[in-house]
Design goal:
This protein has 197 residues and is of the alpha+beta class. It contains seven helices and six strands. The chain has one domain: 2-Layer Sandwich (Hypothetical Protein Yjia, Chain: A,domain 2).
């Protein structure tokens, strides 16, 4: 495109640019003209959002979506709840590359003694009475991303009510839904590349 609006050196000098996107600071004390700065979303068109759900993804549908993210998604990262495995799936995407790693089991899937001990040692652990710590938190960063369209695609990759009923909705202490988790890793530390750069 070569329109002269991007300066790689300037971007490299912007520590905490992601934090600046979410920074909601008060301009009320500024006199007119004395406060000159531009937020990254204004300068570069960079925006971000976090997708949060407490329902598992269908393995094939979320893998297909991750392999076909819109070109305007520059970076995404987060923890996914994928049906068929009790492993927390950490996904990281940069450009065209998408990698997923099994981080270890959801606390909700552990035997009650171990689960109760871990919960007592982590008072700030987000816990749902039905699903425990199982959840998806996925941050998307990009330029001109159609958030509503991408959220709809992510929601479409979740298990439907019928699929959840057929597989068995995993509650606290239950085994994961009986689905084939392929292509997602099933053992802690195992990783897979869903899309090469």
């Amino acid at each position: 495109l070569d329109v002269g609006l991007f300066d790689e050196g300037e971007v490299g000098d912007l520590p905490g640019w992601k934090r600046a996107l979410a920074d909601d600071h008060d301009h009320s004390g500024d006199s007119e003209g004395s406060h000159v700065h531009h937020h990254p979303d204004e300068v570069y068109g960079v925006t971000s959002f976090t997708y949060r759900r407490r329902r598992p993804f269908h393995p094939e549908r979320i893998a297909a979506l991750l392999r076909d993210l819109p070109a305007d998604v520059v970076r995404s990262k987060g923890t996914l709840w994928v049906a068929g495995t009790d492993q927390r799936q950490q996904v990281g995407q940069a450009g065209r590359s998408v990698r997923v790693e099994a981080l270890g089991p959801w606390i909700a899937s552990l035997p009650s003694v171990e689960r109760d001990m871990l919960r007592s040692n982590r008072p700030d652990l987000e816990w749902d009475d039905d699903h425990g710590d199982r959840r998806t938190e996925f941050v998307v960063i990009g330029t001109g991303v159609d958030e509503a369209a991408l959220v709809d695609r992510l929601d479409d990759a979740l298990l439907t009510d019928a699929e959840l009923a057929a597989l068995g909705d995993p509650g606290v202490g239950d085994d994961p839904a009986d689905a084939d988790p392929a292509p997602f890793p099933t053992d802690q530390g195992e990783a897979t590349v869903l899309r090469e750069p």
